[in-house]
Structure formats: structure tokens, C-alpha cells
Amino acid sequence: MAIGKNKRLTKGGKKGGKKKIADPFSKKDWYDVKVPTNFTARTIGRTLATRTTGTKIASDALKGRVFEASLGDLIQLDDEDSHRKFKLICEDVQGRHCLTNFHGMDITTDRLRMLVKKWQTLIEAQADIRTSDGYLLRVFCIAFTMKMRGQIRKTSYAQHTQIKAIRKKMVEIMTRDISGSELKEVVSKL
Q: What SMART domains does the record tag this protein with (predicted)?
């Protein structure tokens, strides 16, 4: 720095002057998230969206948004089923309400880790099944072998042919239960 100049006291300041600080939340609106009628809860929370300005419409920003809630929160009865997570997708916006529909179901990772144990066989099956009202569901199922009553052997593994037979039976049962029912009935079965 040159002698005799004070850096902080230069005339004019920085280029462009000081920027006006605007709160981003002042341009946003809150919307209630409504769940489908097959759950006892009516709303599961609220979400933010930027207000409609020019060509950007607020409802377009909300449509397609996916919300996740546990089954314990959706049926408001028991926390016993809180390990099941439901994904709900926003399909329509009416006023300040986001109307959602079923988008998927999953199990929490801690519950899945609790189920998997040593000395047993894990069998996974998946199937693409169309419901009676036209929705195509990809269903995953998991099964485990277990010890028989009075079994002395430490392990309870299944042979490859047995695994194939069990997997085939799992796909059969999933197809039978889902293909003859509508999406609402399938969600209530889960």
C-alpha cells in the first residue's frame, strides 16, 4: 500500500454501491399438503413455493413435488408401523392446498438392517404388476429362512432350487393380490 493513502476512506466506495438485502421468504407462500382419503390424517405438513410472477406459476412449481411421511403419521393410531415410509406426489393445487397421490412405499433403513441376520438365507423378489385401475407398480419383496422348532443346526440356509421355488411363489402371491385390486386397496394392504 502506498504511503499517505487510507484504503478505507476512498471516495465513491465499491463499484455498484451497496446491494439491497431482500428476504427471499417475503416472496413465498405456504401451502398445506393434503393426503389421499385412504389415510386418516388430512394434512401431513406445509410446503413453500415462490408466488406467481409473470410466466412462472406457483402451482407448476408444486406439481410433481414428492413428500415422504411415515405410516404412523398418516394413520395417527399407532407408532408400531412408523418404519413404513410412504411417498406422496403432488398432482393438483387448489387454492392453498396441495392434493397428493400415492407415489411409493419403502421401509426405513434401520428396520431393514434389523431384519437381516447371519446364518439364514435372504430371498428377494420383484415384479411389475398392473392394477385393475391401470397403474403399473414395481413391487419388491424380501423373505428370510428361519430355524425349525427343535433344530440343532446353527444355520438355516436354503438350496438354490429351493430359493428359486420360493421366489416364484412370492411373485405369484404378489401378482394375485395386486392385479385384481385398485391402487387404493393396494395401499391399504401395505
A: Ribosomal_S3Ae
In angstroms, the first-to-last Cα distance of the chain is 72
- Domain ranges in the chain are 25-107, 116-190
User: How far is the C-alpha of 56 from the C-alpha of 73, rounded, in Å?
Assistant: 33
pLDDT over 60 (residue 176): yes
The amino acid occupying position 139 is V
28-34 and 97-107 strand pairing: parallel
Q: Count the residues in the chain.
A: 190
Q: What is the mean pLDDT of residues 59-71?
A: 92
For the chain, what is the mean pLDDT?
88
Alpha-carbon distances, residue 81 vs 71, 86, 115 (angstroms):
6, 11, 15
